[in-house]
Structure formats: structure tokens, C-alpha cells
């Protein structure tokens, strides 16, 4: 093949690539903008069914933390620490005044909930109560954590647990958290 034939073939290939790029770009440019109705989920997480035997990783769990003590900023600080270890961020706030928690508690509708178990182990299984409550007493999204004045730091809990039951968990919409 002569030099001029190679040059012509190269220019033809480049022209085809340019045309494909223009067509793809035009198609993307003329698509309607997404609307609020197009969103697959509102809020920080969406529900996902988990089968017994399936692994639940930290990145699959959204956590909300509520301050049951008198130390200002404790809920935000705790949620930040949980997020740094791979959990998804839910909500923070203050617990009702009548709630009494010395160190930490995880409230759940089922003590066998793998997300609640994973969070409890990360907070320190021997120092964190796992409390079963009716759904109407739970606040926030995902796993509900309450921290008291004696809470100091996270434990070296597992990065995942195996679900012993069929359940539904609140998986973070943040893809960075899900990778954790």
C-alpha cells in the first residue's frame, strides 16, 4: 500500500469516527432534561430485598444517628465516623428527651436484621444494645442508632455479615457508599 493510500484510509477512518461522535453528541444534546418525576428514589436511600444467605456490606447500609445525650454534635460526629468506614449517610438529630442511652443503641423492628447487626458490631457489640421496637417508634432512614454521653469511638467490626433472614434494607443512593 502506498503512502497516499494509507493517508486516504486514515482520513476515511477519522471521518467516520467524527461522524459517529457528532451523531452521538447530537442525540445526547437533543434529549429532554431529567425531571423530578424521572428520579428513581427520593431521599438518601432506596429499599432493596435481601435473601437469607446473602452478604450485606457496609456500603449497602444507610444509617441515621440521634443524640440521646447532652454532648453537642455527637450525632453528626458519629455519623461522620460511620460514613468514613463505608456506611451510607442517613439523618441526624436529637433523640426524644425521655430516651435514655448510656453509650449506644441500635433500634430495629427485628433483632435478626443484618443491617442492624452490622451497625451494632461496628459500634461495638459488647457496648451497644440491640433493641427491638415497633416501626412507628423508629426515626430516620435506614438503621436507627442512638448515642449517649459515654459513646467514644467505633469498634473494629466486620465489613459484612451474612443475612440469616429474608428482609429489606435501605441501600444508599450514593454510589460511593455502595462501593464500601
What report would you give on this structure?
- This protein is an alpha/beta fold and 180 residues long.
- Helix content is 29%, strand content 26%.
- It contains four helices and nine strands, in the order αβββαββαββββα.
- It starts with a helix and ends with a helix.
What gyration radius follows from the Cα positions, in whole Å? 24 Å
User: Helix amount, in percent?
Assistant: 25-40%
Uncertain runs are none
Major sheet description: 5 strands, mixed
Average residue-wise pLDDT? 88
- Helix count, DSSP H or I runs of 4 or more residues: 4
Major sheet strand order: 4-3-7-5-6
Q: What is the terminal-to-terminal distance?
A: 54 Å
Query: Would you list the SSEs in sequence order as H and E?
Result: HEEEHEEHEEEEH
- Beta-strand residue fraction: 25-35%
Number of domains: 2
CATH class of the largest domain: Alpha Beta
CATH architecture descriptor name of the largest domain: 2-Layer Sandwich
Quick take:
With 180 residues, the chain is α/β, with parallel strands linked by helices.
Amino acid at each position: 500500500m502506498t503512502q497516499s493510500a494509507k493517508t486516504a484510509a486514515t482520513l476515511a477512518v477519522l471521518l467516520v469516527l467524527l461522524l459517529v461522535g457528532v451523531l452521538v453528541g447530537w442525540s445526547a444534546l437533543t434529549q429532554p432534561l431529567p425531571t423530578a418525576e424521572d428520579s428513581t428514589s427520593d431521599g438518601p436511600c432506596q429499599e432493596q430485598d435481601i435473601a437469607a444467605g446473602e452478604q450485606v456490606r457496609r456500603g449497602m447500609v444507610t444509617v441515621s444517628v440521634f443524640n440521646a445525650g447532652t454532648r453537642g454534635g455527637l450525632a453528626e460526629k458519629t455519623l461522620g465516623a460511620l460514613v468514613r468506614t463505608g456506611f451510607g449517610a442517613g439523618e441526624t438529630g436529637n433523640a426524644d428527651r425521655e430516651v435514655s442511652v448510656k453509650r449506644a443503641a441500635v433500634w430495629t423492628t427485628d433483632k435478626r436484621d443484618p443491617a442492624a447487626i452490622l451497625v451494632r458490631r461496628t459500634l461495638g457489640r459488647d457496648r451497644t444494645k440491640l433493641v427491638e421496637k415497633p416501626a412507628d417508634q423508629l426515626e430516620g432512614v435506614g438503621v436507627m442508632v442512638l448515642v449517649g454521653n459515654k459513646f467514644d469511638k467505633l469498634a473494629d467490626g466486620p465489613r459484612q455479615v451474612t443475612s440469616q433472614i429474608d428482609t429489606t434494607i435501605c441501600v444508599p443512593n450514593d454510589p460511593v457508599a455502595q462501593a464500601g
